[in-house]
Amino acid sequence: MWLSLKTSVSIWLVLGLFFAYHPKIYTEEMKCNQPVDVVILLDGSDSISDNDWVRSKNFVKELIGSFDIGLNTIHIGIIVYSSNIGDVIGLKKFHSKETLKFLANRLHHPKDGTDTAAGIRKVTEMMEAESRPNAARVAIVITDGRSKHPIQTTQEALKAKSAGIVMLTVGVGHAISRAELSQIATSEREMFDVSNFSGLQGIVGILRKLLCKNACLVTQKDSTFAMRDHCAGYWSCHYGRAEAKCCQRNHRYVQGKGCQPDGSCNQLCPHFKNTVENDKSECELLTDEDNPSSYIQIVPGIGPISRPCAPGSAFDKSMCSCAKVSKSWKPHVECKPSVSYNFNEDFADQSGNNVFAGYERVIITENGSAKFSDGSRINIWRFANVEFGEKLLLKLRFLTYNYGAVEQPIVTNCYGEYGEGPSIAITTVEQSITIKIKTEFGETGILRFFQVPGFNNVTMVYDGQHVIAKVNGKIKSTALIGNIERRQAGLLIGDCDGQHSFHGEIDYFAVYMCLPDEDVFQRVAPTKGRDIA
Q: Smallest Cα–Cα separation from 456: which of 399, 402, 508, 512?
């Protein structure tokens, strides 16, 4: 099964993580027992085989089974589309979970074209005519190809979003248009991307988990919710959309009562400076206190999102825009991972960027690790065609089941269909661990270590001058210059070419595209192959 990890498919999903940008802002955990009307728009075009149609229906049934469906909670509608609208299960009449599964199993496969515009139009019509007045509106669009009428599709998606419908997209396979899916989705962070129909199964639990976290999505239309740990802050909900607000100073937000006088609450809302209830400043962009090279924009339905300034510029609140800075200006910015996985329960990214991994034949163990065998791989498409340049840090913990004579790829950016060798590789053969980095100048830096029984701890850094690695406490480096050679493939864990597989477990993996100030960098000398005790 494969789940995409590209930034374009990373999903803050209005379904839940509209405050995920900054760890100081939280949303309340909500039980999945609020009124939400969900319409699943299912592609039934002729490009979908009979077996994949069965997989599509199984995905819909599993999704139904994962939701708390009830008279006063979640209602499900289904629309099959092709060149025309096919089978329809409406929202007006309530169907139990078992009835919905039965009806989903009987959905007919039209086997014609892909008129996504007509399908989205039908979703809007159904929501307007049959959705409950007190229910949030969510549509999940599942397609394996491009729309026959892309301009009309974008127009219909805008109408749906204007009607208060949160639009999610699930693209299946390699024939999809990510640009089109980004136009359909409420934002690029409401996009899923799976490699094949088998991969649909992997996002069922994620969809449910995220749906149940968003207080504004799964509650009544004009409610408010406190910002946990911030006495004056609260979120105002309108048709599933969230707007950050603050009580005036010396007032506390009290759930169910609103802003109440309280002299002990004299803090301003985090990241909203002088913003108070019903008071909008001239500049609606906010300063990112942790990173001067970016700013924060409050997006309706999502919340605060960090937007980067152009290289060499910083956000200037007085100008309400990014401005050039002098070459000597160097803001202190904490180096954070671009992606991080601990595999405790699932394949969810723990970095806060909500990057999702494509995976095939990988199992999450009871001990919280990812288990790999023949053909197992995780593909982080987020890093396909990415310029790593001269800054890359990889961290992982892995366990090898056997020390065979055949090389096992642990982390590479190799992918067989592109016919390219990796420019980034961490491999193991027999009892050795090999780390390789290849630059645009054709030079390759290579470091080798012995692996130990049990889990091996690996930290690898490239800084444009050296490849540096710390493996099980041992540090080595080798001189190397230039940008890391770019590859079309994403960053893969496990099998990269269908011929060589990794047999073992990984319980932590992280990628940084920046260089934190850690002891491992300070202690490394430029002598090739030198061991540092």
A: 399
Contact between residue 440 and residue 483 where contact means Cβ atoms under 8 Å apart: yes
Among 171, 176, 157, 152, CA closest to 56: 171
In whole angstroms, what is the distance from residue 412 CA to residue 407 CA? 12
DSSP states along 357-381: -EEES-EE-TTS-EEE-TT-EEEEG
Q: What predicted TM-score, i.e. pTM, was given to this entire model?
A: 0.42
User: Is 334 within the bounds of a domain?
Assistant: no
Count the neighbouring beta carbons within 10 Å of the beta carbon of residue 481: 13
Domain count, the chain: 3
CA separation for the pair 39, 62 (Å, rounded): 15
Choose one of 146, 180, 211: the last residue of a domain: 211
- Say yes or no: 438 and 472 in one domain: yes
Which pLDDT tens digit goes with each residue over 215-233? Answer: 555 444 456 666 655 777 7
CATH number at residue 489: 2.60.120.200
The residue range of the domain holding 229 is 224-324
Between CA 422 and CA 293 the distance in angstroms is 32
- How many other C-beta atoms are found inside a 10 Å radius of the C-beta of residue 421? 16
Considering only CA atoms, which of 203, 209, 208, 207 is closest in space to residue 1? 203
pLDDT category at 404 given cuts 50, 70, 90 is confident
